[in-house]
Amino acid sequence: MTQIPSVSFVILNYNGKEITERCINSLINSIKDIDYEIIVVDNGSNDGSAYYLESKFNFIKVINKRENKYISAYNDGVKEAKNQWVFLLNNDMTFENGFLTPILEHLSQEDIFAVGSKMLKENKDVERCANIPSFKYGYLLIKSVDVDEFLPSIYIGAHGVFNRDKFLEIGGFDDIYSPFYSEDLDLCYRAWKRGWMTYIEPRSIIYHKHMVTIGRFFKRSYILKISARNRFVFLWKNITSKKMIFEHIVCLPFILFGAIFMGKFHYIPSFWMALKLLFKGKIKRELSYVKTDEEILYYFRRFECLTHSLWKDIKRS
Question: What are the chain's domains?
Answer without folding.
Answer: 7-205 (3.90.550.10)
